Every structure is written in structure tokens, then in C-alpha cells.
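Dear V.,

Thank you for sending over the compound details. I've combined the ligand you provided, zinc ion, with the protein sequence from our construct and run the structure prediction for the complex. I'm sharing the raw inputs here so there's no ambiguity about protonation or stereochemistry in the SMILES, which I know was a concern on your side last time.
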Amino acid sequence: MNLRLSSTAILLITLMTHPLSIFGSDIKKKEEAVASIESHNTELTNISDQIWRFAETALRETRSSKLLADYAEKQGFEVKRGVAGMPTAFIASYGQGRPIIGILGEYDALPGISQKAQPVKEALEAGSAGHGCGHNLFGTASLGAAVAVKELIAAGKLKGTVRFYGTPAEESIGGKIYMAREGVFNDLDVCLAWHPDDRIRADVDSTQAIVDFIVEFKGKAAHAAADPWNGRSAVAALEFFTTGLNRMREFVKPTVRMHYTIQKGGDVPNVVPEYARVWCWLRDSKRAGAEELLARARKIAEGAALMAGVESKLTVQGGDYELLVNLTGERIIHANLTWLGPIQYTAEEQEFAKTIQRATSVEPTGLNGAVQPFDPPKPDPEGGSTDVGDVSWLVPTLHLSVTTAPEKAPWHAWPVVACGGMSIGHKGMAYAAKALAATMVDLFEDAKTREAIQAEFKQKSKGEVYKPYVPDGPPPVPKD
Ligand SMILES: [Zn+2]
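Below is the predicted structure of the protein with zinc ion bound, written out as C-alpha cells.
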């Protein structure tokens, strides 16, 4: 028998055997979830705006995480704070038994990009941090979705457990990786996450794997004029190392990204520097590619030290897996995005966006509130990594993007901060919460869909033993 059925045949069979699946025919519960988010919209907007103003960076998100955790507690969730050795990580649970559906929320800001909620570049507080990745919206929307689902569970309309993960420090050490190492995601049936973006779509494309490490060189100090022959320069080794790394660029795949900053390169010219340090991030489409780059960088560091007559030490500090995409799950997300339809913007919001685009030399096309078509995944992801990738190798993880900023506006920069503190960001946040809640209704209701998602996950992750890219010991929580 020919088992290669056409997609239309599969669709017909699915509809005949399982009428409530895939297209979420149980619209009423989804409508209730959407109504719940609308009823909480003022509080959610307030929470997001407060986190936007706090603008706390990685592992310093004390007030931001407390605000979200307190809100979850007030809504009836059981909250566990200080998870995996990080005071700003928490887990909020509601309900009992299976299925257990998880949802991730981030809330860390980026240093040095403080910005007012206006379309002209001007710091809210000069030199301070800003939400240049929209994580104030990310954490709040995810919690809003969890609250909507909690209300359906409380009303006896859904059965199981909803679990919100407050995951700190995405922008630096990768808080989720330390949480993953503790095993806090392992019992989930499915996990969900979203990210602010300039488009609305179910994310069928992966993200890059990355390895984050420092290389230190230790030489011998001497007077740079009186007896330089007695010195061995750590900076000379660092220069050999970066030269080697930059020379390597010619001989890597086009998917590779390599970037570094020099953190320590001597103090004054008349002392042969005895210490130098460089911080590197190497990325490729898959973990195996990142591993290969790391192995080559180790050799370059050793060679550089040998040439300069100094010692070298390479320390891996962290890194992310690429996102393991679950197409079965992404189809469910796409169906829910289509059901919700586009985001509508006012003329003022479009003008706000266009002013930003003109200021950043981007074509003034405004905001794109349309749901993007469900295109086949690209063979390699665009540049960028996330610690959601690590979670996706432990449990099936579904991901979506929602518009919160003008098309093609620079990310990790002031335009994203500006939009995240006003109605453009607020609309994206509410929309993301609704899309996540509607998708969760499908996941709670439909065991067959969950099984199909898990089957795809098992098949794709087969043979991979999860090895987090973090050093042994506790996460590097700042002491001050
Ligand atoms: Zn981000």
C-alpha cells in the first residue's frame, strides 16, 4: 500500500477522525482566553511599563522578577523563587496533573541603550540600560497567557497544569541553561515561547548555536625600554590570537559568525604587559559547527601563546543550542495567528514607526501587522541565538514572533526600546498573549496533537545527549 498520502488526504482524515484538532474548533474557550487577556490588559500594560522603566540587566532583574512573581501569586499561582541558584529566576504553577504546559518569560534589559518612548533618539537616563530586545513585553505577555489559561483551569474548562518560567539573564549568561541543568523543564509535555520582532509569524526557522568563551594570556612584565628582553608580552599573544581568528574567517562556512571584544590589553606602553584577555562568541547553524569552531580556536590560542612565549587559558563561559524546530507545533501556532488576524495600527503609530525608520536610514514602510505565510523552513537560520534553544532539546518547544517594532529597525538599539514603552509594544504584547493562550487551549484539549508534537521531537532529538555549555558550579550572580 502506498502510504505517501497527499496533504489534502491527511487533512481530510484528520478532520474526520479528530474534529476538534489542528484548527482549534473549540473556539469558545479560545474566545474566553482572549477576553481574559483583554480584561487584564490595563494591569499587564502597567507591569510591562514598569519593567521597561526598571530596565534591569542580566541577573540584576530583582524588581522586574518580583513584580511578575507577585502578580502570579496574586492570581493564585504557586510561586517558587530563586530557582537554580538565581535569585531572579522563578517558577509559577497552577493546576494539577497532566498535561503540563510550560511557557517562558524573559525580563532582562541591555546596558547603555536607555531611551524615551519617542521616535527621536534621546536617553531616558543617560548611560543606563534599556529594553532593546523587548523583554519587558516578552515576560509580561507570557504571564498574561498563563493567567488566561489558569482561569480556564479554575473554571473546570481545561484539565492539567500551566507553568510559567521566569527566566533571567537571556542576554548574557543564559539563565535558561542553568535552569535546564537543574532539570526544571524535563517533565513538560510542551513548552512555549515568543519573541518581540518586526513581523508576526510561527517560527519555523531555527536560531544559531553559539559558544561563549574567554582566552587569557599570561606573560612576564619588564621595563619596555630598559630590559624588554626579560619580558614576555601577553598582548603580543592576544594579537597573534585575534590575527589567527580573523585569518580563519576565510576558511569557515558562510553560516559562521565570529565576534570578540578585547577586555584587557595592558596598562601603559612602558611596561611589557603580563596579562591580556579577549572575550569571544563563535556561532554556526548547529551545535556541532560551534564545537568545531571552538576546537580550532583552542589551537589558535595555544599557537599564539607558543609564539609569544607566554601561557594561555581558554574558559568556556556559556553558549546556546540552536532551536530545535517542531513543525507540527508551529502549524498549530500558525492556525491560531490566522484565527487572531492582523494587528491594526493607528495613523499616529505608523507615523511613529516611519519617523524611527527615517532616523535609522531604513525605508519608511511603517509597521507590519500582517500574519506571515507559513513558508518552509530555511536551511540555515539568520544571525542570532537564544537560550530557548537549550530548552528545545529537552522538551518540544514552540516559538512565535510578534511585531513590536518598525520593519527592519535596528535591534538591540533605541528604536526597540522606544516602541516597547508605548502603544506599539503594548499591542504586540497583548497579541502575543492571545496567540500563546489560544495555542495552549489546543495543547490542553487535544492529546493527539500533543502526541504528534512529541513524536516529531523524539525523532529529531534522537541520539543527542544534552550537554549545557556552562561551567560547573553556581551561576555567576553578581555580589553587589
Ligand atoms: Zn531577546
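A first observation: The chain is about 40% helix and 15% strand.

Warm regards,
I. M.
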